[in-house]
């Protein structure tokens, strides 16, 4: 398993323009498969437009203690891009006035940003009560200074959403790195200890399941039942919901698909599973994604493809919600990942 | 080099069989879809049965399809292999149980 980002390896796919070229050529250029825009047009859902803004998703940096094989952020210890205090201040100005009710913090490992806690505290003062932190779990065990994160999360009633690709060690470590499973289990137990994930508890602990390979996630409910049974029996772990998220064909997962000669089959699977009713609730319709350097995107995936919002307002410093909401969402073939089957978003299925 | 009889990408074209016999094709796919729905058996159990039968039928398309289906359902490698052993056990059992016929015949023919 690679221990460096595509960027650090000088991989061709670290170049987002190259990724866009791949997603627009081959089977999509020769008409073997319809483009995402073609599909949207079939059901008169083109152009895709935002609905009411509900979630501000802020990426605090691409730095991470893990180098997961499927990471769409291409995050890792070698990524030094993290949000500065100045950009955080600009975000806070927006938070004071936004109509969005939820602040969704992601990365990388958002907790690795040295100003992570200060930012949460300031956002809470600015009126945010609905926080999500997308935690990779192992960060809690990575260093002494992170051991009290469960307490910090609890103090601010943060909704913790954690990745957990499988309830078996082998499958988890293959995707996320050696030792990740054991550390994740320990971290989940620590979260349970302070009250997270327990039945009836307001301290929400949800898990994210990504398939560990070139296949789509199965039924979210069935997977949740399997996860609950296995984690409870073997490790006495409780959690609330499981979000089944489809891997989008970008960044490291795209690199994997191409290298393993699964790219075409995977794209066929995504297109075949296209569900027009999932389109109405894809996350780009109620979310704005802010990158570590303050630029605005329709979603986290568009951020990683460097597809900034199609609006006069492109940076948090110039934020204007009215102007921003009156835009067309930028789409491409990677969007098939969010509309396959029951759909996929940062909150799991959407249809 | 001669073309192989099987082409993995033909699986994607399975639906096209309706083009030359629409009614029968559609009826088959309706039936097929219904069979694999959650019922008295879970969809997961049905997937494992299909995987085992795919092997006893030695259908490469079915093996591809139900290996992937198993992975999608979070079924582990160990569970998949055990399912195949069930199919193999029935296959070998079906061979060996005919040994009784052989024994009967020998006993009848020999003095």
The low-pLDDT segments of chain A are none
Number of helices of chain A: 14
Oligomer: heterodimer
Estimate the global geometry of chain A from the Cα principal axes: globular
Span between N and C termini of chain A? 34 Å
Rounded Rg of chain B: 19 Å
Number of helices of chain B: 5
Task: Write a structural description.
The complex is a heterodimer of chains A (351) and B (111). By secondary structure, chain A is an alpha/beta fold. Chain A contains 14 helices and eight strands. Chain A has helices at 16-24, 36-42, 85-97, 116-125, 138-142, 149-155, 169-176, 180-193, 220-235, 251-259, 263-272, 276-279, 300-304, 321-325, and strands at residues 55-59, 102-106, 130-135, 159-163, 205-209, 242-244, 287-290, 296-297. In chain A, strands 6-5-4-3-2-1-7-8 form an eight-stranded mixed sheet. Chain B is an all-alpha fold and 111 residues long. Helix content of chain B is 66%, strand content 0%. Chain B starts with 21 loop residues before the first helix and ends with a helix. The A-B interface holds A 166-168, 171, 209, 211, 213, 215-219, 222-223, 226-227, 268, 272 and B 12, 42-44, 68, 71-74, 76.
């Amino acid at each position: 398993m690679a221990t460096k980002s595509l960027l650090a390896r000088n991989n061709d796919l670290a170049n987002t323009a190259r990724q866009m070229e791949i997603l627009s050529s081959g089977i999509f250029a020769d008409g073997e498969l319809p483009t995402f825009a073609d599909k949207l047009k079939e059901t008169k859902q083109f152009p895709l437009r935002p609905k009411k803004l509900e979630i501000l998703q802020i990426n605090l940096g691409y730095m991470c203690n893990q180098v997961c094989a499927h990471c769409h952020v291409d995050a890792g210890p070698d990524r030094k891009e993290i949000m500065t205090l100045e950009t955080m201040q600009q975000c806070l100005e927006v938070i004071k006035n936004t109509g969005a009710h939820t602040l969704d913090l992601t990365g990388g490992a958002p907790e690795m940003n040295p100003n992570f806690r200060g930012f949460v505290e300031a956002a809470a003062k600015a009126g945010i009560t609905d926080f999500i932190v997308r935690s990779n779990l192992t960060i809690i065990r990575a260093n002494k200074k992170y051991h009290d994160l469960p307490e910090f999360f609890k103090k601010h009633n943060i909704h913790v959403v954690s990745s957990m690709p499988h309830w078996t060690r082998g499958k988890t470590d293959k995707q996320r790195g050696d030792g990740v499973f054991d550390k994740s289990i320990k971290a989940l137990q620590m979260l349970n200890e302070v009250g997270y994930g327990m039945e009836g508890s307001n301290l929400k602990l949800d898990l994210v399941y990504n398939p560990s390979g070139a296949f789509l996630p199965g039924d979210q409910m069935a997977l949740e039942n399997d996860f609950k049974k296995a984690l409870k029996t073997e490790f006495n772990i409780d959690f609330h919901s499981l979000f089944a998220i489809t891997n989008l064909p970008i960044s490291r997962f795209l690199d994997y698909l191409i290298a393993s000669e699964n790219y075409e089959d995977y794209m066929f699977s995504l297109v075949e599973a296209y569900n027009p009713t999932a389109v109405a609730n894809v996350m780009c319709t109620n979310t704005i994604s802010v990158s570590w350097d303050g630029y605005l995107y329709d979603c986290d995936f568009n951020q990683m493809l460097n597809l900034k919002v199609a609006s006069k307002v492109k940076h948090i410093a110039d934020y204007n919600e009215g102007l921003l909401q009156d835009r067309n969402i930028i789409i491409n073939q990677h969007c098939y990942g969010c509309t396959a089957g029951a759909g996929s978003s940062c909150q799991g299925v959407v249809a | 080099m001669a073309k192989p009889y099987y082409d993995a990408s033909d699986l994607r074209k399975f639906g096209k069989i309706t083009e030359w016999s629409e009614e029968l094709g559609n009826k088959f796919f309706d039936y097929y879809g219904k069979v694999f729905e959650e019922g008295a058996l879970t969809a997961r159990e049905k997937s494992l049965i299909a995987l085992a039968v795919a092997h006893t039928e030695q259908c490469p398309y079915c093996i591809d399809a139900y290996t992937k289906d198993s992975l999608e359902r979070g079924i582990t490698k160990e569970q998949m292999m055990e399912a195949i052993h069930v199919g193999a056990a029935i296959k070998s059992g079906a061979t060996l149980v005919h040994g009784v016929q052989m024994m009967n015949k020998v006993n009848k023919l020999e003095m």
